[in-house]
Amino acid sequence: MTQPLNVKFVYALWGTVSRYQQMLRNYVPNPDSYPWMTGEPPELFRWTLLTPLAYEAVMDKIIAEQQQRRRKGELDFLMYDSGGFQTLRKNYTIEDIIRKDYELYTGYPYADGYVLPDLPTGPRKPLEEMELNIVRSIKASFDLFHMLPDELKAKSIPVYHARKIEHIDWQYEKFQHITKHSKMASYSIAGLNKKFNAKHMGFIRYLKSLQPDCHIHLLGVGTPPAIFCMEQVGVNTFDAMTPHRIATLGKVATFYGALAYSSNLEESVEEVAIEEMREQTGHRCPFCDDLKRLKMEPRYRIMHNWIVYEELRHYYGQFDLESFQSYAPKWYKQLDITFHPEKHKKVEFEQPSLF
């Protein structure tokens, strides 16, 4: 029996877990029939990401649920996200994020990791803007870090952004004071482009070489073959809104990517593809047993998609590099051409001044 990949999928919460657990209880009469339900308790939702800023009005309810789950042994790790992406939507300034995160992090100090504020930069924005945002992100991170009590400082997680390897060097110089205590850092792909590619893999591999014992969390990557590549370059955990987001758009996840599901066809190529996936991979879940209901009900697609993402760790555990090259040659090429830091000629990075 193959071992699953070590990289873990962190479930980004949309509201409470209980409504999804209720669906599992209602629709999984025989848990032993499904690999993702084996174990005591099952793997689903054991690693969870919560953005307190997005759920400020109902934090009491959500945290009460997470504490109950932890007491029952259903929760291994709870991570708070800073909500820095809200600055892209112009809902908040970075100063707002710092203030709100301080209130919510200290008001609900029950997480295992606290992501520090960052200012993401869109991939089409100029390099100068991204470098200025890196500076502002570092300043915001330390502004919040110094405000937090010691027990939360020890669980703080800085966010790295990079388009050049020099960006990693500079942020590491600043952030190592934080990560030497928490042993955790996160990496965002937002600034380069929205696809996990060879350059990202090189940056992560380099960051891991600087601090081998650091837990690396990858933000927002959800393409199935990327999960195998994450393992190869040293990623420990990743989160993605992909399973939930594509479900609301009428799509279902497979082991190979997302499928658009047309609800007005009696039988579609998507149904055939799902059946083939089930046959080839052994995927089983009660939410795709009824393909017509899967078409019509978003909550069925959400549950199916989450289960697929949990199973992907096990699915890709069967591959070595040679078999992965045959299975996903384009992704293998991205992995194979990942640059090696020792061969990279560095140029001086002129750090924008903000302090």
User: Treating each run of at least 4 consecutive H or I residues as one helix, how many helices?
Assistant: 14
Largest sheet: 9 strands, parallel
Gyration radius, in Å? 21 Å
Apparent shape: globular
% residues in beta strands: 5-15%
Based on secondary structure, the structural category is alpha/beta
Low-confidence stretches: none
Q: Taking strands numbered 1, 2, ... along the chain, how are they ordered across the largest sheet?
A: 5-4-3-2-1-9-8-7-6
Number of strands: 11
Distance between the termini: 55 Å
Q: Round the mean pLDDT to the nearest integer and report it.
A: 83
Pattern of helices and strands: EHEHEHEHHEEHEHEHEHEEHHHHH
Written description of the protein model:
The protein is an alpha/beta fold and 355 residues long. It has a domain of 97 residues. 46% of the residues lie in helices and 11% in strands. It is built from 14 helices and eleven strands. A nine-stranded parallel sheet has the order 5-4-3-2-1-9-8-7-6. A two-stranded antiparallel ribbon has the order 10-11. Helix 3 runs parallel beside helix 4, helix 4 runs parallel beside helix 6 and helix 13 crosses helix 14. It is globular and about 55 Å long.
What keywords describe this structure?
single chain, 355 residues, alpha/beta, nine-stranded parallel β-sheet, two-stranded antiparallel ribbon, globular
